[in-house]
Amino acid sequence: MACINSDGTLVASARAILTASRKPSTPEQIAAATGLSVYRVRGGVRELAAAGLVEQQDGIYRLTGAGETRLAGALTPAPVVGGADVRGR
Amino acid sequence: MSQSAADAAITAGLPRLNEPAPEFEAVTTHGVVRLSDYRDGWLVLFSHPADFTPVCTTEFVAFAEIYPELQQRGVELLGLSIDSVYSHIAWVRNIKEKLGVEIPFPVIADLNKEVASLYGMVMPGESKTETSRCVFVIDPKGILRAMIYYPLTTGRSMREILRLIDAMQTTDKHGVATPANWQPGEQVIVPPPRTTEGAAERVDAGYECADWYLCKKSL
Question: Residue B135: is it exposed, middle or buried by C-beta count within 10 angstroms (0-12/13-18/19+)?
């Protein structure tokens, strides 16, 4: 997937889309808010919706609870224990 | 499948001007994209024969250089070749490392030749495994408006692609045609009348006319 790395972390464009989706928005509005191209947002929300991180109704996308949790985890600095990043393990 | 049948299979799809561009969903270096993701804006879909080849590399650099000008015109770029997405990623990283050029647009990894077949990008007389240098200009309604086919040996002209887009956008905005070698700012062609009455009135309509069917005006 393009938005979600194979290790489950979110790429920067995905974080931007999820952040913008806190306010229910169309892909065009998300593109304007994030500076991403519209085509990239359309593909991104499709992928994020399939992952349950956003939901769509009548062309409007909004962040889900799972998306909020994932975003919070992505934006939180990784805890370091013994010099290692244990997030996701 | 016989050789001729195999050739026919990859050339079966030849898109036609002024008809909806064939829809597709494809893996790209920017994730999975659909043609419909580009709706409401212009798209230049282009193919190149192969990653890590010299002419293609010069073309990618050239496309990257005109990308800002394309965006100013509301146009996006989408590349394609019959290579894996890993090859694409390695190649654009190599272009950045060796030539200092960032490739900002996505590139379709069309390993199964699905999009190439839809758009008639493979010319078996040139290569059965590589796409030729094709350009498809698709408008905001998803209509295929222009096609350019170049051989493997010859890099494309970015100036001509920009000129082509300027010409079609001028046509759409003003309802005119553009003459040979037209450049933005030059006179455009007034569509010819379709009736004898219209032809009789045309010469007095205030345009610069060589005859009733060949009239120009300034925008």
Answer: middle
Contacts of A38 in chain B (CB under 8 A): 37, 40-41
ipTM of the complex: 0.83
What's the pLDDT tens digit per position in B1-37? 566 666 666 656 789 999 999 999 999 999 999 999 9
The nearest CA of chain A is from the CA of B167 a distance in Å of: 24
Averaged pLDDT for residues B66-84: 98
User: Which residues have C-beta within 8 Å of that of residue B66, sequence separation ≥ 6?
Assistant: B158, B161, B162
Distance CA B162, CA B158 (A): 6
- Taking an 8 Å cut-off on Cβ atoms, the answer to whether A37 and B76 are in contact is yes
Write out the two tokens for A46: 């499709």
- Partner residue facing A3 (CB), from B31, B37, B76: B31
Mean predicted confidence (pLDDT) in B117-137: 96
Closest in A37, A38, A47 to B32, CB measured: A47
Question: Which residue reads 């050239």 in tokens?
Answer: B62
- Chain A CB contacts of B32 under 8 Å are 2, 43, 46-47
